[in-house]
Write a structure and sequence with these properties.
Strand order of the largest sheet: 1-6-5-4-3-2
Shape: globular
CATH topology of the largest domain: Alpha-D-Glucose-1,6-Bisphosphate, Chain A, domain 4
Number of strands: 6
CATH superfamily of the largest domain: START domain
Order of helices and strands: HEHHEEEEEH
Oligomer: single chain
Radius of gyration: 21 Å
């Protein structure tokens, strides 16, 4: 952990200056964690916001079933994601949690978290806030505002640029598309 002066509490900043051959230097070293990535997915839904709020405020397992259907669930919280697009053969067992449903009039707010069910150190944990955004037309959009931090430092940042960001985007899009389709189906 970095101190206010920029050195690490364990004294590694001083050791780094000595190792690099900076005798008596006054500069300090700060270690910053890998940057956090953000993505937003928006999907219009042909339902009034109050109807969507009612549909989304269910038990977490039911919300996961709405988004992924029964075929993807291996247990109530483990989903086998099969990503399409750039990575059609990639299948990942992912633990999905739905947290903190918040009501505020016609706006639903739910936090969703995805994390790898196996080899978790190699995959980021992604959290997203799901909100219903009302429109003046009386209909609404589902909005998923997601964030994650690539694991494994610099190597993870590189892997994120090559593959990880596409996996994160596909995960968020797939969730929102399927959830919106379920909401639209309940309108019929």
């Amino acid at each position: 952990m970095a101190t206010a002066a920029g050195g690490r509490r364990d004294g590694s900043a001083g050791r780094l200056r000595s190792w690099l051959g900076v005798p008596g230097g006054t500069s300090s070293v700060e270690w910053e964690p890998a940057r956090e990535e953000h993505l937003r997915v928006i999907r219009p839904v042909s339902r009034p916001p109050a109807d969507i709020d009612r549909i989304l405020h269910v038990e977490p397992a039911e919300l996961i079933r709405l988004a992924y259907g029964g075929e993807a669930l291996t247990t109530p919280r483990i989903v086998r994601l099969q990503l399409s697009g750039r990575l059609p053969r990639l299948r990942l067992p992912v633990e999905v949690d739905c947290l903190s449903p918040v009501t505020g009039g016609a706006e639903a707010g739910i936090t969703i978290r995805w994390r790898a069910a196996a080899l978790g150190a190699f995959f980021p944990e992604m959290s997203a806030d799901l909100h219903v955004q009302p429109h003046s037309s009386g209909e609404a959009s589902l909005e998923l505002d997601a964030r994650y931090r690539p694991p494994l430092g610099l190597l993870g940042l590189l892997a994120d640029q090559l593959v990880g960001r596409f996996v994160a985007a596909a995960t968020a899009q797939q969730f929102l598309e399927r959830l919106a389709a379920s909401v639209d189906e309940q309108a019929a």
